[in-house]
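Our preliminary data section would be incomplete without showing what the modeling component actually yields. Below, a chain of 254 amino acids is followed by its predicted structure, encoded as tokens that our downstream tools consume directly.
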Amino acid sequence: MNLPDTSLDTWEIGAIKKYRTFVLVFLTLNSNSIDETVFSAPYWKNNVLIQMTAQRKKRDSGASVRERILDTATELFYKQGFSNTGMRQIIQESGSVAASLYDHFPSKKELGIAYLARQEEKTLSDLGSLMERYPEVQEFLRAWVILKERQIRHYEFFGDPFAGFANQVMDSDPEYTEFLKGIAEKWMKMIRDYLSRAVASGQFTRNMDIQYVSRRVLMAYHGSITLWRMTKDLRYIREMEDSLREIFEDYTAR
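Predicted structure:
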């Protein structure tokens, strides 16, 4: 059987009458992922239903499905809130089915933990990259502020994901609390290690209380982000640099 040299839409209309079962399977697949051999007679004669089903399972199996679900959940949790996002919406917007979602994430809690881990990886990676690129603390502070403002302007940043999550679920499950505490500790350690290198390089005096200064840096950051989130006034982001610089004034090496 040679298919006529016509458009796919025309062929679909004609083929439905003779190959109803096969066409129904075909139409559920993404045409971009189908090899041209599906249009040949041998393909249609040799267990086409089994082959197409296997192709779809291969495309939608394993990590690809998990990542698609997690990508969708991450966007929804971050933009509209964990409590305001239902599993049904995640299923619909990720193009998945309930069985696939619950196979990878048996509960919304497990999906929430995976979301926090995803945000942790991104946040610490961004911060680490800035620290590596700008070993001079004053340059780093400036770059940090510029990054936040750029992310806000490009609709990539809607506030601190951990604070937003904590405000909704902190008292609902101790596992969330411990996970969030762990993120804060890693964040704090990253700042401590960075400041330790700055002290060793002579940028600051050796009497700096690095633990105390690290806490103040995070407090200044979160305070500015929270006020911006409340008011949508970018001045709180721009002035964050001044707040951060003031922390180091008493420790600057002369």
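The radius of gyration is 26 Å. Residues 1-34, 41-46, 48-60 have pLDDT under 50 and may be disordered. Preliminary results of this kind motivate Aim 1 of the renewal.
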